[in-house]
Amino acid sequence: MERDEYRDLAVNDPARLAAIKAEASVSPLYNNDLAPTGPEDRTWSTYNIAALWIGMSIVITTYTLASGLMAAGMNWWQALLTISLGNVIVLIPMLLNAHAGTRYGIPFPVFVRASFGVRGANFAAIARALVACGWFGIQTWIGGLALDALMSAAWSGWAEVAHHQFITFFVFWAVQVAIILRGIEGVKILESLAAPLLLAGGLVLLVWGFVAGGGVGNVFARSAELQAGQVPFWALFPSALAANVGYWITLSLNIPDFTRYAKSQRSQVVGQVIGLPLTMTAFSFIGIAVTAATVVVYGEPIWDPVALVGRITGDIPALLILAMIVVVIAQISTNMAANVVSPSFDFSNLAPKYVSFRTGGIITAVIGIISFPWLLYQSAGAYIFTWLVGYGSLLGAIGAVMIVDYWIVRRRRLSLPDLYKTDGRYAYSGGWNWRAIAAVAIGVVPVLPGFLKAATTPNFAGVFENPTFIESLYNYGLFFTFAVAGLAYLLLSFIPSRAPEVAEEPEAT
């Protein structure tokens, strides 16, 4: 790579970077997976970043994302608008946190040491990791269902096998573990190859919907039948928007895990702008349009694309097998990038000298099983308005602290060597920055009563009956926690620090 191609790096001298790594290598906070990337590691182009988002966004949970909103009372364009707006909003913290990954070549758990402390970073990292483990389980369960349909098409007696869905779940789990063992480069290759295949599969499904449904106009005329609830749009909108921002709020924290490999800031920014909001909106649109077409064709809405593909191609086993392979690839590509990379680094950060990226991935896969994903996914209300809104509130507060610390308090300047020192600038008090922890608590505690009520309300559909003022704050989820935690951290940062004063990195030239 030519020198002018990596001018966005804070340390763009290979000899100096090697010296920093050599000094940090003796630290208990360092291993090769957490080390800053150099020019030779910057192989992700704009296409690779865009393909990453295409591969992560084209997945069954995106396809069905509108179903919960329409079941609660939204019409098709209101649901699509909410999804689109949510993804444009989440793109903002995504790009803000991505900057440090490209500039300093560091993954999320190392970056968060600057704001939470070298020990406090584990609080933020494990909070992110446990969410990813839950997501890993959900996506693996869905992938197992697709594999189950594939087996049923290949062998008529498969449905008679005891616990056949759990068998395919564990087979799908084992396939992903094999990919985990190949490391981060395997994820890059998988996403780059999967993206065009997944786009083609989505377009084929959309064409079928419009043709079989009697045209675009007829399909959307019948879409009103997808509305099951009667909740007014403006009553549902705040929590629904928060849920859609929460869908990718996890990645807005750990996006440095990927952008540390980007060739430049331009590559990661353009790739994300192209890949995230456009793909999420387009594939959600396909989900709505095709499901509306099933009302015309089959007389009932079929939101589950696995069930739909099985019905469409039931008489042509070869076509069903091909379609299920595409679905399986979609699940694997999303799970590898969104739900394995981050927790692998996060668990490695707990004990860098003992836990590698691959070991962290195995830990993720095991926790994904014991999260009981078949229970998390069975209810649209629990999935959207409790799972997405609930964890989004916590991670939104953590993300706000990171952004305020990096962009306002530190003005994008970090001391790369001190991120790996137990007694450097980011040691704070015993390795913890109490300001960050306090700011997160100030942001999150007010929404806990609403979360507890949502979690204990059967078939919760996003709107409380007669909520108290405190309970109503939950409807705004991460918007509330992000704003309050960010402001609290900014105010707390004015309190003098006793942390060692160490010169930060100068602006790159």
TrEMBL record:
Keywords: Membrane, Transmembrane, Transmembrane helix
Topological relation to the membrane, as annotated: Multi-pass membrane protein
Gene3D superfamilies on file: Hydantoin permease
Database matches in Pfam families: Transp_cyt_pur
GO molecular function, one term: nucleobase transmembrane transporter activity
GO CC, alphabetical: plasma membrane
InterPro entries in the record: NCS1 (IPR012681), Pur-cyt_permease (IPR001248), Uracil/uridine/allantoin_perm (IPR045225)
Subcellular location per the Swiss-Prot or TrEMBL entry: Membrane
Segments passing through the bilayer: 50-70, 76-100, 121-142, 162-181, 193-211, 231-253, 274-298, 318-342, 354-376, 382-409, 430-452, 472-492
Domain of life: Bacteria
Family according to the record: Belongs to the purine-cytosine permease (2.A.39) family.
Protein name per its UniProtKB record: Nitrate reductase
The organism of origin for this protein: Rubrobacter xylanophilus
